[in-house]
């Protein structure tokens, strides 16, 4: 009996982790998701920076660390904040000419990587595999009254803001 109870608890916990990390729950009556297109170029998301391509030439993430150290704060102050209604979204992210694999990470603004409570209770979606010319979708449900940030840790970008009202 104890073994069965442990297996059931493990199954429930894994389900909770899946929901927490993907930010989505499937439903037969689910509303359609709104698509948000985001394009990554060296060290930035174009749409987030008002469609201005700063023309940063990068060969590795280290280049972006240096570039963002000089320009990131000012660029972030001028960046477009996504003001969205609550609902389901697909963030469609493209790697446009960055010569190394990229990723995408959207999370609640106060999410702490490595905090097991946040893993279970806060929204965080991420993934990699965005090679040059690749576009991938990241599905999430955003909740009213919550602030989120998104970035690319592999093409270090600023943490761009999303406000959901």
How many domains in all?
A: 1
Strand order of the largest sheet: 3-9-8-5-6
Annotated CATH architecture:
Sandwich
Strand coverage percent: 25-35%
Regions with pLDDT < 50 over 5+ consecutive residues? 1-29
Please tally the helical runs, counting DSSP H or I stretches of 4 or more residues: 3
Shape: globular
Q: How do the SSEs run, as a string of H and E?
A: HEEHEEEHEEEE
Mean pLDDT: 85
CATH homologous superfamily placement: Cupredoxins -  blue copper proteins
CATH class designation: Mainly Beta
N-C termini distance: 47 Å
CATH third-level topology: Immunoglobulin-like
What would you say about this model in short?
The protein has 3 helices and 9 strands, in the order αββαβββαββββ. With 165 residues, the protein is of the alpha+beta class. The strands form 2 sheets. A 5-stranded mixed sheet has the order 3-9-8-5-6. A 4-stranded mixed sheet has the order 2-1-4-7, with no helix packed on it.
Q: What features would you highlight for this structure?
A:
five-stranded mixed sheet, 165 residues, 27% helix, four-stranded mixed sheet, Immunoglobulin-like, globular, alpha+beta
């Amino acid at each position: 009996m104890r073994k069965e109870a442990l297996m059931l608890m493990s199954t429930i916990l894994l389900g909770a982790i899946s929901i927490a990390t993907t930010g989505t729950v499937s439903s037969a009556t689910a509303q359609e998701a709104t698509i948000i297109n985001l394009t990554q170029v060296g060290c930035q998301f174009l749409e987030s920076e008002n469609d201005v391509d700063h023309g940063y030439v990068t060969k590795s993430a280290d280049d972006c660390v240096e570039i963002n150290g000089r320009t990131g704060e000012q660029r972030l102050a001028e960046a477009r904040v996504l003001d969205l209604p609550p609902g389901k979204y697909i963030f469609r992210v493209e790697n446009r000419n960055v010569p190394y694999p990229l990723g995408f990470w959207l999370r609640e603004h106060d999410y702490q990587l490595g905090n097991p409570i946040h893993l279970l209770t806060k929204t965080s979606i991420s993934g990699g595999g965005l090679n040059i010319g690749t576009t991938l979708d990241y599905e999430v449900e955003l909740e009213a009254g919550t602030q989120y940030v998104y970035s690319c840790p592999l093409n270090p970008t600023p943490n761009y803001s999303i406000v959901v009202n």
